[in-house]
Amino acid sequence: MARARAALLILLAVLLVAPLALDRYLLSVMILILYFAFVGQAWNIMMGFCGQLSLGHALYVGLGAYTAAALYQHFGVVPWVGLLAAVAVCVAAASAIGWLAFRFGIGGTYFALLTIAFAEFTRIGFDHFDWVGASGGFFLKVAQQDRADLLNLRGGPLMFYYLALALAVAAFLLSAWLLRGRLGFYFRAIRDNEEAARASGVDTFRYKMVAVQISAGLTALGGVFFAFYYNNLFPEQIFNMGRSIEIILAPLIGGVGTLFGPILGAAVLTLLSEGISEALALSGYEIPGAKQILYGIALGLSIMFMPHGIWPALADRLGLRRSDGDDDA
Amino acid sequence: MPESTIAADRAASPAALPMLEVVGASKSFRGLKAVAQASLSVATGEIVALIGPNGAGKTTLFNLIAGALAPDEGAIRFLGADIAGERSDRICAAGIGRTFQIVKPFADMSVLENAMVGGFRGTADRRLARARAEGALRSLDMWLQRDRPASALTLPDRKRLEVARALATEPRLLLLDEVMAGLRPTETDQMVAAFRRLNAEQGVTILLIEHVMRAVMALAQRVYVLHHGEIIASGTPQQVTTNPKVLESYLGVEAGH
Q: Which of B74, B88, B115, B230 is 20 to 30 A from residue A316's alpha carbon, by CA?
């Protein structure tokens, strides 16, 4: 474990100085990786740790983004305060969905369908929500790219790079901390066998709610980041089901339920996607859809050969322990 | 007996207070009576066995006590409080630990982590949970297997893990559902010895469903026999195994001859 800790610190140090060596394009790629590592980590708490499948996490990205952006644009509330409201809104939404599902015993794929349904309702609702521009989109004041105004989150890619890095590190530490303590044990017990968890003293309703709330609250932060980084929000995009799938791809490919899976998955997927684009551009052929097909083939192969994800396969190869929960056992 | 005498009796010997009392409990599934008017009691510190042919309703009765199912009628009292229909996590918190006949390990967690889930009962202190889990695993000779994933265990070991996880909750009453099935005689004897130690040293009261008569005879002070959901006999193991009604229903008519 000491070795792993040292490796992580080295990785962090590299990431801290990386912008010195990166051009604007590569910096934006790194921001994407860190963003997907972050939201992947948030989703992973709910599904990977606690076994509750959400296919509608775009809901929390969108609600978080719109809440903070609207408060900023309409009332001048700084995003650092707005994010508290964003988290509150998303935790409330997650609580409502969780309560409906868990109180009435809706689990598994039915729960996943419920999460999709809520994301879709909300998308349609926001399409007609004039206060935030409805389907025409909602736009933040254009950022001064040369100045980093951290208070108002107005600035260039460098500022957002470090924000994304801070988010990713925080989500990683939170996940590691969760796994060590009672919450992590209870989440995993629920994931593996709910009835046995109950018999072992776990109030499964309560802890499933907690998992969903933590996951939604974190994802809300991702939404705030998204809003202030991109400066424009469209319901058709942000609440899109495709966005929900994007969020879960990183942990899925990297390794569901592991600490490193979401990070590794985000890096592999983003680099793969960007790499295919670059390679196609260099080859000079313009074949519409070729990128998506290659990307899909790569995902298919990875799932065929590493059904538990890249990280568990890699950890086995490197002789590292797969269990992330108990390092001093 | 006048009430005052009962009260005096109880005051004189608190150990005689029933820890668990099931009074006229019934449970039907679509009209089929799985448990019919079953009554039993287990005194503090006792080891009691519940036997009966397959399908007699033993596991259903366990599920009623442990809160996995709510009885249609009847009372279930644990330490004087009615727990009928209470949630199973609350019943666990009250001090009843159970194992499942069809084992339900947390498959992607290690043996130690499985037991630690139980160890977290009533505490968020990881060290305490780990200490409880360690104690439970050691008393069942599973400590050396602590880092193995539960999914890699053999069936008898999974049964032992069920017991360890329940024990780690530090129950006052342990419900064991056929934990010796599939064990070799020497392993059965080891487990019997482990339960005796738990009972003697930690004062754990035990109610067990068991088909392995070797274990029942060695452990149980009293035995209840369930047949078609009804308690048809009770008494010491010797009394019960010579009861003609029991021989007929449980061991089959042939055995009675």
A: B115
Pairing of strands B47-51, B222-227: parallel
How does pLDDT run across B124-176, given as a tens digit for each residue?
999 999 999 999 999 999 999 999 999 999 999 999 999 999 999 999 999 99
Residue in B97, B106, B121 closest to A192 by CB: B106
**Token pair of B225, please?**
């026999």
The SS3 of residue A30 is helix
- When the candidates are 2.40.30.170, 3.40.1280.10, 2.40.50.140, 3.40.50.300, the CATH number that belongs to B44-69+87-225+232-252 is 3.40.50.300
Mean pLDDT score, A281-299: 84
Which of B244, B253, B234, B256 lies closest to B51, judged by CA? B234
Quick check: B169 and A200 CB within 8 A? yes
| DSSP E strands, B122-204 | 173-177
The DSSP string of B13-40 is -GGGSEEEEEEEEEEEETTEEEEEEEEE
Residues in B touching A186 (Cβ below 8 Å): 117, 120
Cβ neighbours of A192 in B, within 8 Å: 105-109
Find the range with the poorest average confidence among A182-191, A238-247, A274-283.
A274-283
pLDDT-derived band at B89, boundaries 50, 70, 90: very high
DSSP-derived letter for residue A149 is: B
Place of tokens 């899925």: A252
Q: How far is A144 from chain B (nearest CA, A)?
A: 48
d(CA B124, CA B176) in angstroms, rounded, equals 26
Nearest CA distance, A182 vs chain B (angstrom): 6
With tokens 């089929």, the residue in question is B32
Q: How confident is the model over A51-61, as a mean pLDDT?
A: 97
How far away is chain A from the Cα of B7, in angstroms, using its nearest Cα? 33
Give the number of other CB atoms < 10 A from CB of residue A115.
25
Q: Are B204 and B174 in contact (CB under 8 A)?
A: yes
Average pLDDT, chain B: 90
- Taken in order A25, A28, A32, A33, the sign of the CA dihedral is positive
Residue in chain B lying closest to A203 (CA): B89
Q: How far apart are CA A190 and CA A202, in angstroms?
A: 8
- List the single residue in A189, A199, A202 with the smallest CB-CB distance to B66: A199
Domain boundaries, chain B: 44-69+87-225+232-252
Chain A to chain B Cβ contacts (< 8 Å): 97
